[in-house]
């Protein structure tokens, strides 16, 4: 059984987190993400969880990482300025392989920018924002239903790969109200436990070490310093650093096909829209208004690690059109993986592309 | 050896300089842990960045060596998610009072049930001796070459004002008193803050005519005044010799605490 509700995207995100077993939320109020914190504040105590309003976003992500090390599913939600403040500790989560979920309801930037307006301006920041080399997973919902579904998925991916995982939503989807189906239960895949006799940072073929949360009797030392398989600092040996950081990147990048999640419409098309998040809704409207099998649509639900092979699903493609709510961020990733022409359709200011705007670009490139 | 079961012997040699006071503080803390009878599986040590914050790496227990200044925020997450764990935080004056100042006052305000041991050596030791928020006015460091022109924070008084349930200050000379204070802090529900004035002959002493370890320890001993006497002198309006600081228990109270084991 499941129940059908009419719900706001941010509320659906919180419901997805609760369904996924999230029992710790540390956050700081920031528009347009605040409803997630408000929902968690109301709901978590009733399911034996902990909601805590921290003193800033640096503390929010720190508390989430601390809670995650007790084996508790933990999350925070924020927007641009708060996301920027979290960057150092996001790198710490990557380095220490801490499973946690960070929701970014994106708004117009840079700086304080447009608190109540949508953007997709943090798509490269979520991949490259902290210093040093690492890799992360980022999901991009385009509906209230996906705010629920992809939040659940984010927790499972975070646990499986022991990596900070981002739900990169935006003000439009966060504040949109739609019909959503909430199942009675969802699949939950906990992290693989640390095997007897294994070292805390010793990984198998998949590159992901077993997890021994605090209190489980394994006396794990966790540090953001470059560390060996025992978890002990070893900051000067080039080989230790090379081995660790290459594994941190490879465990995510080598699983790209496994993590990938995308939709293909009209694979024989010659002109193909490539989208993630809410611009896909405008493209869907265009395709409903002007049915045409020569126009295709590739829609990513996961953008990082970037599933470049998805672009090969359109063997006849002559041109890719990429509307984004930024000055052109993910389009660079598409451009470097195909020989065809890739046209960026940037839009900033807080409003979605209109169908008419996309039709104009479509007509110009076919 | 104090608390031999709690040391990660395979991590030796440690990084502390000859004559450093941090090892003494680590010893006193582990002696308090033994006194409490805490189990390894139920105890977590958390720290930020700096010399003090390397301490958890030498303890055989779950330990989280976090980012600069944020140890108390990480510890809040650990303790709130698992109140049954005993949580001890090691920090230093730079970590706690400069970059982590906001987390310090809010952790005290929340009064989260944990024991915070601050090794206050009045200098950024790890980076080679720059002035910190507790460097005394007039003291020399690599970034205060003409003497520090800023007033210093009184960390213990700050913790009292911000709401911690237990606050004490001792020095690395007063090992018995320090061990007892840490034990009392561990027994007190809520946030226990123990400031320990420690010697850093390498990076503080050598710029301030205290290059020899015994001189630094003697300086700490001779400038420490029991808080009862200190307060009485203040009340009488009597002159307090320059550089003198109060030691002892500054407060023990029962404000509501968070994250207390049920």
TrEMBL record, chain B:
> Which InterPro entries does this entry report, sorted A to Z?
2-oxoacid:Fd_oxidoreductase (IPR051457), THDP-binding (IPR029061), TPP_enzyme_TPP-bd (IPR011766)
GO terms of biological process kind: cellular respiration; organic acid metabolic process; sulfur compound biosynthetic process
Can you tell which superkingdom this protein's organism belongs to? Archaea
The membrane-spanning stretches of this chain are none
Q: Which Gene3D superfamilies match?
A: 3.40.50.970
Please name the GO terms that the record assigns under molecular function.
2-oxoglutarate synthase activity; thiamine pyrophosphate binding
Record EC number? 1.2.7.3
Q: Which UniProt keywords apply?
A: Oxidoreductase
Q: Which enzyme class?
A: oxidoreductase
**Which Pfam families does the record associate with it?**
TPP_enzyme_C
Determine if Oxidoreductase is one of this entry's keywords: yes
Q: Which PANTHER family match?
A: 2-OXOGLUTARATE OXIDOREDUCTASE SUBUNIT KORB-RELATED, 2-OXOGLUTARATE SYNTHASE SUBUNIT KORB
Q: What is this protein called?
A: 2-oxoglutarate synthase subunit korB
Gene field = korB
